[in-house]
Amino acid sequence: MIITVINQKGGVGKTTTAVNLAYGLSKQMNVGLLDMDPEGGTSFSFGIRRDKREFPLGGKSINIFNIEVFPAHLGLLKLEIGGEVEDVMKSIVKIAESFDVLVIDTPPNLGTLAVASMVAADKILSPVTPQPLAIEAVRNLDSRLQSLNKKAVAFTSMSKKPIDVELKAVKFLQLSIPQSRLFSEASKLGVPVSRYEEIRLRRPRIEKLYEELGKVILSE
Ligand SMILES: Nc1ncnc2c1ncn2[C@@H]1O[C@H](COP(=O)(O)OP(=O)(O)OP(=O)(O)O)[C@@H](O)[C@H]1O
Ligand SMILES: [Mg+2]
C-alpha cells in the first residue's frame, strides 16, 4: 500500500506527517519512507544530509527506527525536470512491493514528482493549516485530484480547531494536530516528535494522534 502525503503549499506539515505516520505504522508493519522532495525534508528529519550523488529512485536506503528510509539525492532534481510521470509512478510502485506500507513525502508543488506520487498512491493524505492560502491550495489540489480521478483525506495541521471545508475529492477528517514546541525540540535532535515524546513524556499525546491518523487513513 502506498500513502502519499501532499499539499503544494510549503511549510504545512507534510514532512512531519510523513515521518510520524511512518514511525507509528512501523510498530506493526514493514514500512518504507520515500523522500520525493529534492530539498530532502524527510532525510533532514532523521539527520541525513541530502546526497549529492545521483541514484535511481529507490537506489539507496537506510534503516532508522525500524523504518526503511529512502533519502533525497541529486537524481530527484533530474526527474523533477526531465522525468515522465508514468515512469516515476512505475518506479514508486516497484519500491512499494517490498513493504506493507510505503509512505511518500512530496515537495511543495504539483510537479512531476508530486503528481507521480499521487497517481501511484492508494491513499492520499493532506495536512492543511487554517490559513487562507493553505485552504486555497487545498481547493486547487481538489480540482487536480478530480482531473486525476483520485480522492484524498485532509486533516488540520498546527491548530486545535478542525478546518471545515466541503470539497469534492478531498474529505476533511475531524482530526487535528495542535501546535507544540515539541516539534522544534525533536527536529533539533533529528528524531520524529513521536519518538521524542516516548523518551521525554510518560503519556505521549502527539504520538497518539499520529497513530490515530494511521488507523484512519488505512481504513478510509
Ligand atoms: N504541529 C506542529 N506544531 C509546531 N510546529 C510544527 C508542527 N508541525 C510541523 N511543525 C514545524 O513546522 C515546520 C514545517 O513543517 P514541515 O517541514 O513538516 O512542513 P512541509 O509541508 O513538509 O514543508 P515544505 O513544503 O517546505 O516541505 C517544521 O519546522 C516543523 O517542525
Ligand atoms: Mg517537507
TrEMBL record:
Residues 2-151 form the AAA domain. It comes from the Archaea. InterPro entries: AAA_dom, DNA_Partitioning_ATPase, P-loop_NTPase. Signal peptide: none annotated. PANTHER family: COBYRINIC ACID AC-DIAMIDE SYNTHASE, P-LOOP CONTAINING NUCLEOSIDE TRIPHOSPHATE HYDROLASE. This is Cobyrinic acid a,c-diamide synthase. It comes from Metallosphaera cuprina (strain Ar-4). The lineage of its organism: Archaea, Thermoproteota, Thermoprotei, Sulfolobales, Sulfolobaceae.
